[in-house]
Amino acid sequence: MTRKIKIKRGLDIPLAGKAEGDAVSVECDAVGICPDDYPGYTWKCDVKPGDKVAEGSTLFHAKEAEDIKLVSPLSGTVEEIRRGERRRILAVTVRKSGEEKKSFKEGDIESRIKESGLWALMRQRPYDIVPSDSAAPRDIFVTGFDSAPLAGSVIPRHLAEYLENGLKVLKSLTKGKVYLSVRENQGITSDYAEILEIEGPHPAGNVGVQIAAVAPVNKGETVWALDAATAARIGCLEKTGHADFMTEVAITGSSAKNPKNIITRIGAPLETLLKGEMEEGTHTRVISGNVLTGTKEEPATGFLRYPYRQITLIPQGDNADEFMGWASMNPQKFSVKRTFPAFLQGKAKKFVMDSRLKGGRRAMILSGEMDKVFPFDIYPEYLIKAMLAGNYDKMEKLGIYEVAPEDFALPEFVDTSKEELQKLTRESLDKLRSES
User: What is the residue extent of each domain of the chain?
Assistant: First the structure.
């Protein structure tokens, strides 16, 4: 069965630097796993520097559920346990040596998903956390496309054959439905999932938007969400007994010498992936992810962060020198509100944007500007006010169970007050969960 859904509110940011062409393989000799990428649990490290690990061996286990693991995507030696303030673990790095792979052929499929680290790649709504194993999901949503700026493919080509098998496994884990979202007219069918053909601008690819359009999450309900690559990895695990840790990544952005698609390993070091991709001496912002929700990284020390699909390179903007500044009528400037004449050039026009704030932080203004890019049946500005005030009752009534930090990325982009809405949403969801 196929259902067509049209998303009307949103915004496709016309950034220059989209990756084109077939993916090329890039080998890496190290990986880094960052526990902060997997919210909802306290992660306990199970290794120390010098330990030998196989591909798929446990690096962390969840304190609250010891059978949920984070594993090594590479066979080798634990090189470093990188720590931050108060000795908080920032990352565990593994240096490649050998080709040993751990097998996951014993036990039921749920326990194998947890043991292989694939459980941690899924998310639970509400709260946008790694799923709890104590609550069965009402439904499971699988996202088959990414609508974020310059996003590439969601399903690595070498995993595409396992997707249907993965949907079959997911169907066995819920009494409800499994939904697979795709772009319109792709001709995809499934015996185990209802196909959602989504039309519309970003954030049409956000799973929260899709859940809200099909069956919103109410208090007391649990929904699981994952991308199609993770679903295909689950299918591969069930069929072969091994977890696949290769991923397809788009190197994008106006500061990339040659935007392209590559196939590499989960957690690959950015220094390896970006070798020869940036001009020497340039002021470049390196983002693991897209410009809206990604993580700022240092290319010498950073890693490919979850969900491992994109690296974006844009100008830092700290050396910009513009004639007349904001008062300029430069046709190379982008504005949501058509402040500059570039909109006359049509939707095909692509822009070079830098990482500057382009505004000042101020008290929140109730202007209605967020409603135009927020396709939920929610009043975003009133929900934000409730989060700022820490009013849990109002947050619940205004629909916080339906949203995740990524759903406020576009409102953050257009916000005149320059509030850190994604950070605020993450903190509010964590506090609400701790009080429940």
Answer: 370-435
